[in-house]
Structure formats: C-alpha cells, structure tokens
C-alpha cells in the first residue's frame, strides 16, 4: 500500500504532500487540484512503466504541460513511501527531467538500507537489504529509457524489494477520464486494462473470459436484478462487441453497449477493475451518471475492496455512506493557498468539521460547511501553530 507521496513542480502541486489510506476520497472546490492529484499518481506509475511518450500522447499533453507555472524549476521531484507485506517500508525518490523524459537521479531505501542510487549516468543496486554496500554493483548507464531506470531492469537484476516497489507503483491504474462515450467504443484489444476513459471495456471483458463476466454479472444483479447476461463476441478484423441482456416478464432483451445506460456502463467498468490485479485504483467524480439509490452499493464496493482506492467527489451523498472512522482517515480536503498551490488536509481534522462529526454524519457535516471559508480556518490554524497544518500529508 502507498502511504505517502510528495511531488514538487507538477501542475498546481508545488511541494505537495498527501498521506493515503486504503480508501481515500478527495473533496474541495472546483479547481482545487483534485483531478491533478489523480494525474500525479498516474504520472508516478508511468515512471515504472517507462513509456512516457505514449502516456503524454494519450492525455494530449506536451512535456512542458507537466511543470507548474508557480515555480521556475525544470525537474519534477517525486517521493513515495510504500508498505509491502514482505519487505516493510520502502522509500523511493526521483527527479524527472522534462526534456529527457527520464529520472536523472533516483534513490530507494528499505529499513534504512539504500537499495538503489542513480546519479551522473551511473547506477548502483543492492539486491538484498542485508547487504551494506552498493559499490560492488556500480554500472554505467549504456541504454536508453524513459521514466525510472527500474522500468527497464529485470527482477534478477534488481532483487525482490525493488521488484516489489516496482510492481506496486506500476499497478496504479487511473480511470480519471471515464466517460460513457469511451465505454461504448468497440476495440480490438485491451492490453490488459480499460484505458484512461474506459475505451477498451468491450475488449477487456472479452479477454477476461466467461467466468469473470459471470462474477461481474452476479455483483451487478444486486443493483440491477433484471440483468440476465454480459456477453461479448469477436467480430471481423478482431473488433470486440459488448451486449447487455435484461429479462422482463420472462422475455430476454439484448442491448448493444452503444445503447446501454450510462450508469450501468460506469458500474460495470468500476466493478471490473475492483476484480482486477491492479494495486491502486483512481476514479474521478465517482458519482457521475450513477442513480442516487445505487450510490450506497457503489461506495460499499469501493470501501470493501482489497485494492487501495482513491476517488474524487463533489457529492455529500458519497460521504453519507462512509463510516465515521473511514471518513476521518480517508476524506481529504484540497484547497489552494495564496500563491495558487494545492494543499491538503484531512477534512475531519479541521476543528469545525471535527465538532460537527460528533452529532452529524460525514455527508451532513460536509453539506453544512461553506467550503470557501475553510481555507481561512486552516490558515488561522497554521498561524497559531506556527507551521503548515496540511495533516493529510502525514
């Protein structure tokens, strides 16, 4: 699980830190940086996949779009803390150069022992946390790559702790551009994932096989009892087609994906990812297109998932279905400081919200609050404490 990230010089994120729970929910005013945080996590994941060019093309971005207008820095600095079951806490930091599209410096530590160092076109690797010296495996970098050097090195080259770090970060999966238009598209293959907008849904479900589709059907039937089947087939030239069948009065009606309602398609996409092998799932404005009576079903599925999950929302309804402890740990308020940089704090660590939570539900406390006034309260706390109170980063 990823416990904490720090990123500097990524869009509105300047010296930005955030602490993460198993389930995290970002709230805040429009423009506060909620979507940017999801994009930053996806950017961090791309460091371990290595194809930065394709990722930028997917988002229709240029390298210059990554940097913040609030600073003159060129590199994007990253720091991540990952808790692994076998190796404990692993810390990785890197400096990403927007011209070369690679991390020009990197370090990784496990239990205080340095596992990796990249500097001056050379790298050092310690394959075991029990070893103490990196000098014996110092190597000159003689190959081209993008992102982290770990994206190009194999398991036998880097050892188990670094491989565990690589897998956790590489298996962050963002669906922050999820939309009905994308979900309805036919595609030839999915490469094992849905795509940022869910545009590979038909191919993804086809490749997962009938058993996976049956399990998804059984889950969805709790929300849509009339569902009869989720069917896919391969067309000419390899295109994959998706049909949803429903039963009414004993008659089965099959509907192609291009005519299926938005909410069902979105739920199908979300649940398919909760059944995947990804480690960390990111969803933007999770309530979009979902009927209010199905929100509890969706929230329960996200909170109870074995995956680490982050969502953004503008809806107090989402918070209403969170247990108080889940809300205390996972709901994070984002706002911009006087310089325009995004800041974070756990919503219910703000005194006025903590007080309301004693006699209101999380959603009720949220809707009873003027978000425009919270920044003033946070600033007053910072002034009294003499330090930054962005507690969500600790």
Automatic annotation (TrEMBL):
<dbReference type="GO" id="GO:0016887">
    <property type="term" value="F:ATP hydrolysis activity"/>
</dbReference>
<dbReference type="InterPro" id="IPR003959">
    <property type="entry name" value="ATPase_AAA_core"/>
</dbReference>
<dbReference type="Pfam" id="PF13175">
    <property type="entry name" value="AAA_15"/>
</dbReference>
<dbReference type="InterPro" id="IPR041685">
    <property type="entry name" value="AAA_GajA/Old/RecF-like"/>
</dbReference>
<dbReference type="InterPro" id="IPR014555">
    <property type="entry name" value="RecF-like"/>
</dbReference>
<protein>
    <submittedName>
        <fullName>ATPase</fullName>
    </submittedName>
</protein>
<feature type="domain" description="ATPase AAA-type core">
    <location>
        <begin position="254"/>
        <end position="320"/>
    </location>
</feature>
<dbReference type="Pfam" id="PF13304">
    <property type="entry name" value="AAA_21"/>
</dbReference>
<feature type="domain" description="Endonuclease GajA/Old nuclease/RecF-like AAA">
    <location>
        <begin position="1"/>
        <end position="81"/>
    </location>
</feature>
<dbReference type="GO" id="GO:0005524">
    <property type="term" value="F:ATP binding"/>
</dbReference>
<dbReference type="InterPro" id="IPR027417">
    <property type="entry name" value="P-loop_NTPase"/>
</dbReference>
<dbReference type="InterPro" id="IPR051396">
    <property type="entry name" value="Bact_Antivir_Def_Nuclease"/>
</dbReference>
């Amino acid at each position: 699980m990823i416990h904490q990230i720090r990123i500097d010089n990524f869009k509105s994120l300047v010296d930005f830190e955030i602490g993460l729970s198993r389930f995290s929910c970002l709230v805040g005013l429009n423009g506060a940086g909620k979507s940017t945080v999801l994009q930053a996590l996806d950017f961090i994941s791309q460091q371990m996949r290595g194809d930065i060019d394709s990722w930028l093309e997917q988002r229709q971005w240029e390298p210059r779009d990554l940097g913040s207008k609030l600073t003159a820095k060129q590199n994007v600095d990253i720091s991540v803390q990952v808790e692994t079951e076998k190796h404990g806490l692993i810390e990785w930091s890197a400096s990403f150069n927007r011209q070369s599209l690679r991390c020009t410096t990197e370090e990784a530590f496990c239990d205080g022992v340095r596992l990796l160092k990249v500097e001056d076109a050379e790298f050092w690797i310690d394959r075991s946390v029990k070893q103490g010296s990196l000098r014996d495996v110092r190597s000159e970098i003689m190959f081209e790559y993008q992102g982290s050097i770990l994206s190009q090195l194999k398991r036998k080259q880097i050892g188990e702790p670094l491989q565990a770090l690589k897998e956790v970060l590489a298996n962050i999966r963002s669906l922050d551009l999820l939309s009905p238009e994308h979900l309805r598209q036919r595609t030839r293959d999915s490469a094992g994932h849905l795509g940022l907008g869910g545009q590979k849904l038909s191919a993804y479900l086809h490749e997962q096989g009938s058993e996976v589709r049956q399990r998804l059907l059984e889950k969805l039937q709790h929300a849509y009892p009339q569902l009869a089947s989720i069917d896919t087939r391969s067309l000419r030239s390899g295109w994959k087609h998706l049909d949803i069948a429903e039963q009414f009065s004993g008659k089965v009606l099959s509907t192609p994906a291009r005519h299926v309602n938005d909410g069902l398609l979105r739920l199908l996409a979300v649940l398919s990812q909760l059944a995947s092998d990804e480690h960390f799932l990111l969803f933007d404005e999770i309530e979009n297109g979902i009927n209010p009576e199905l929100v509890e079903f969706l929230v329960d599925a996200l909170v109870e998932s074995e995956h680490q999950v982050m969502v953004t929302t503008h809806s107090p309804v989402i918070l209403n279905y969170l247990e108080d402890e889940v809300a205390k740990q996972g709901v994070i308020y984002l706002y911009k400081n006087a310089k325009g940089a995004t800041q974070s704090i756990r919503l219910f660590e703000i005194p006025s919200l903590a007080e309301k939570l004693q006699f209101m539900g999380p959603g009720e406390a949220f809707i009873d609050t003027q978000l425009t006034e919270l920044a003033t309260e946070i600033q007053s706390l910072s002034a009294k404490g003499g330090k930054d109170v962005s507690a969500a980063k600790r």
